[in-house]
Design brief:
The protein has 22 helices and no strands. It is mostly helical and about 450 residues long. The protein has one domain. α8 runs antiparallel to α11 and α18 runs parallel beside α20.
Length: about 450
C-alpha cells in the first residue's frame, strides 16, 4: 500500500503559500534582525552597528564573483547538447508521479555532488523536461513538487566535489592554517563515511519526495509560458568572421588549455582542490562540449539571468556577516553549542550551529571562517577529529538551505516559480534530512 505523506506536507504548503516572503524580503528582514541583535545582545552601539553594516557590504565581492562564475559555467555546461540530451533521456524514465519526484531528486543530488550550482541548474532543467514528458504521456505531475524535489537533491551538495568548507581548509593559506594546517579532501569529502551518508540522505529524501504528491485536483502542471528557452543558430555565416565565430576548434582549444592547466595542477600538487579550480573545470567542460565560441558565449549570456538575485542580495549577506563576526554575536551563536557538547556530540552540535548560522550567512566557506576557530578549539580539548568539525559545519550549511531561500534563486529563475510555491515541501525535506545528517554525525562521534 502506498504511504502518502501529503497530509503531513499540506499544512506546510498552505503556510508557505500564504506567509513565506520573497527571498529579497527575507534578506531585508535578516538585515534588520541582525542589526537589532547586535545592538541589543552585544555592547555594540547603534552607530557602530550601522558603520559595520555599511562597510561590510563589499566584503563578499571577490567570493561573489567566484559564485557568479560557477553559476554561469554550470548553467552553460548543463545547456550543452550532450548534457541536454542526457537530461531529456532521463526524463523519459518515470512511469508514475512518484517515480518522477524521486528521479529528479536523485538526478539533482548526483549533479550537486559534482557542483552545487550544477545540481541547481540540472535540477531545474530536469524538472521542466520531466514535466513536459509527463504531460505528453498523460502522467499527472505537480510542478511545484517536481521543483522542490529537485531542490531537495541539493541538500547533499556540501558533501561533494565543490563543498566550500572542506575545500577551504585544503587550500594553502587558508585563515586557520596556523591552527590546523592543511586538511586534504581525502580526509573530509572523499571518505567512506561522508560519501555513504550522502547516499543514505539522498535516497531517504528521494523516498520522502516520492510520497508527497497531492491529490489530483490540487495538481498544478507546468504552464505553457513557463521557462522560455532561447534558441541557438549554429549555422556558419558566409563571412570569414562568421566562420571563426562558429569554429569549434577555437572553443575546444581553449577548453584543452584549461584542461591541461588542471592536469598539471593535479600532477604537481596531488588531489588538491580549490573553489577556483572547480570553476575552471566547469569552464573547460563547457568549452569542450560547446559547438563553437559563439555558442558558448550565448550559453553564458543566457545563464546571466540567474545572477541578478545573487548580485543584489550578496552585499546584504556580506554586511550581515560583518555584523556577526565583528561583534560578539558569533560567540552567542557558537559558544552555547560548544558548552553542551561532549566528545561524541561535538560534530552534531557543529551541524546544528551551522544550520542556525546559515540563515544569516548562506555561504559554507563564510560559515567556516566564522565558526571554525571556536569549534576547532573545542575539538582539541575534547579529542575530536578536525574533519568531523569541518563536515559538521558543512552539513549544517546544506541542511537549512532547504528553508533558507537564497540558493533556490537560480533554480527558481529558470523554472519561473516563486519561493513560496516550493517551500512547504522543502520544509518536509528539511525535517527528513535532519534525521539522516544529524543521526549520521552522532553515529560517527569523534571520528
Amino acid at each position: 500500500m502506498r504511504l502518502s505523506l501529503d497530509r503531513i506536507a499540506q499544512p506546510f504548503v498552505a503556510f508557505s503559500e500564504r506567509y513565506y516572503p520573497d527571498p529579497f524580503v527575507f534578506a531585508i528582514g535578516l538585515t534588520f534582525v541582525t542589526l537589532a541583535m547586535a545592538v541589543v545582545a552585544t555592547p555594540t552601539t547603534a552607530a557602530d552597528a550601522l558603520s559595520l553594516w555599511g562597510n561590510g557590504l563589499t566584503g563578499f565581492l571577490g567570493f561573489a564573483m567566484q559564485i557568479c562564475i560557477v553559476l554561469v559555467a554550470a548553467h552553460a555546461l548543463a545547456h550543452t547538447d550532450a548534457v541536454k540530451r542526457g537530461i531529456d533521456a532521463v526524463a523519459r524514465w518515470p512511469r508514475t508521479g512518484s517515480q518522477a519526484y524521486a528521479l529528479i531528486c536523485v538526478l539533482a543530488g548526483l549533479a550537486s555532488m559534482i557542483a552545487g550550482a550544477l545540481g541547481l541548474i540540472v535540477g531545474a532543467l530536469g524538472a521542466v523536461s520531466i514535466a513536459r514528458e509527463g504531460a505528453r504521456r498523460g502522467i499527472a505531475l505537480h510542478f511545484p513538487l517536481l521543483v522542490a524535489s529537485a531542490y531537495g537533491g541539493f541538500v547533499i551538495w556540501h558533501m561533494g566535489y565543490s563543498g566550500t568548507a572542506p575545500l577551504a581548509v585544503a587550500t594553502p593559506g587558508h585563515t586557520l592554517e596556523s591552527v590546523m594546517g592543511l586538511l586534504p579532501v581525502t580526509e573530509t569529502t572523499f571518505t567512506g563515511w561522508n560519501l555513504g551518508l550522502a547516499a543514505v540522505t539522498l535516497l531517504a529524501v528521494a523516498l520522502v519526495c516520492s510520497q508527497l504528491g497531492p491529490q489530483e485536483g490540487a495538481i498544478v502542471a507546468l504552464g505553457e509560458a513557463d521557462t522560455p528557452e532561447g534558441t541557438d543558430d549554429a549555422r556558419a555565416g558566409p563571412t570569414p568572421a562568421d566562420r571563426l565565430d562558429h569554429a569549434r576548434l577555437l572553443s575546444a582549444s581553449l577548453g584543452v588549455l584549461f584542461a591541461v592547466f588542471i592536469f598539471v595542477w593535479f600532477r604537481d600538487r596531488g588531489f588538491s582542490l580549490t573553489l577556483n579550480l572547480v570553476n575552471w573545470s566547469f569552464v573547460a567542460a563547457g568549452l569542450l562540449l560547446a559547438r563553437s565560441p559563439v555558442h558558448y558565449f550565448r550559453l553564458i549570456n543566457d545563464a546571466s539571468r540567474t545572477l541578478g538575485p545573487v548580485v543584489l542580495q550578496y552585499p546584504l549577506y556580506a554586511a550581515v556577516v560583518a555584523l556577526i563576526t565583528q561583534t560578539e554575536l558569533v560567540n552567542l551563536f557558537s559558544d552555547g553549542f560548544v558548552a553542551i557538547s561532549t566528545e561524541r556530540t561535538l560534530g552534531f552540535w557543529a551541524f546544528v550551529s551551522g544550520g542556525v548560522l546559515n540563515f544569516f550567512v548562506p555561504s559554507g566557506g563564510g560559515q567556516w571562517a566564522v565558526q571554525g576557530p571556536i569549534f576547532l578549539e573545542a575539538a582539541r580539548s575534547l579529542g575530536v577529529s578536525d574533519a568531523v568539525v569541518v563536515m559538521g559545519v558543512a552539513y549544517g550549511d546544506q541542511w537549512t538551505n532547504m528553508i533558507q531561500p537564497f540558493w533556490a534563486l537560480p533554480l527558481l529563475a529558470i523554472v519561473g516559480l516563486n519561493a513560496r510555491a516550493i517551500m512547504g515541501y522543502c520544509f518536509v525535506i528539511f525535517l527528513a534530512s535532519f534525521v539522516c545528517l544529524g543521526g549520521g554525525l552522532l553515529v560517527l562521534g569523534p571520528g
